[in-house]
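Lab notebook: predicted structure, single chain.

Context: the supervisor wants predicted structures on file for every construct in the current expression panel, including those that have not yet been purified. This is the next one on the list. No modifications to the sequence; it matches the entry in the shared construct table.
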Amino acid sequence: MFTFVKNEWLRRYKAPMIFTLIVASMIFISMQFYKTIMENMILLDTFLSTDMMNGILGAFGVDVAAMKSVVGFFSSYSTMWVMMAGGIYFAYFGAEMIAREERLNTISYLAIKPMSRRALFLSKWLALQGIILAFFMGISLVGVLSVGMQSRYAPWTINAEALTEERVNRIAENGEALSPYLKVDEALFDAFTMEMLFGQFTGNEAEIEAAGIDAQGLIASIGDELQNPEVMFDNMLQNPEKYLETFKRYLGDSEALKLDEATFAEAVKEEQAKYRDMKADFLTGKNVIGHYFSYAPEFFLEEMITSNQIPLMIAVHPELSEVVQRVNWRSFAYVIFNMWGVVSALGTFGLCIAAVTIHAQLSGQIAMLISLIFYFMNTILEMVGSLKLLKWLTPFSYADTSGSNPNLINIMILLIVMMGISAIGALRYKNRDIIG
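Prediction complete. Output recorded below exactly as produced.
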């Protein structure tokens, strides 16, 4: 069987390799526009971020928000060139692996070989998958090259998956060396306290709901005052009755329900003193990151990015490069893997169409047409809410090429279906008359 797979590869690799060069060239050329897109992102945001444009572009697999990252930009363009063009091409190519044999009548020669029909089908499938794998190796190589070239123009982003508790602690331990790169002033402190306060009301939603706390109602009631805690504390001390009533209304079964006005005022004074001590330590201390980073890691990472000091900070603490990146190569790998799953499934689909069709000469055109219908079904049904579930009948809907939160379960389902179709194709090919 190995010899047959090898011969099948050698007979058929030229056309797919030319196709690979064409697709890779289009992706490489498209990636050269990334710098221009980033330079004009504000203007493009205004135009592209409308609901209508998001819906239209989303239907074609283009995530406007994701395009700001270099991997997202690569994904947006490669989705069209690789998944659409590649999927349709390999569906046709897979079918032609059998159809061409029948048109040229070389299938008669193969049929008399000392090899079962099932092994013959499996050999063609293995050769097809090897050619598709070679296609994706070429696309990946060009992708790595073009993404790497454009990465200098990409914004720094936070890789939340890499922000583990252990890594947060190690960054905090090196806070004294990192803190001088931050501009520590009252504006930073005010932003930090806002992050902390809103984090208390919006984090741990399950616990807040279980306690009967109406966080949204409380924020709507005193949210504006949270922006200036000093003024809020003074107002609370001047009118404790009003604020105690507000807290009792929104805090459910909390301890606030048991407080009287005098006790509430004392509690406010204690919190005010803590706030002032923290503010003094924050503004005069030399190790802001060491003391406060673990409370709001993403907040401080965003401030590091805003400071434009990331390269220097990475030089001081190299582990930061795992958390703050211009290119998330794991997301890049997810994008490639998802596209491979779709193209591989469509190639298998084409091969199986030829295997189950009585007269397979036209199976290539049939496979290409059905694949094109699949693509436009996925595109159109994405925009029609009432029919959205029907898009799962198409292979294209199973690929998540955003790279941010890849749904590997979907692509695994697609691969399982592909194996099932392959089994059906092998059984049908075993029993059908392929001669004459």
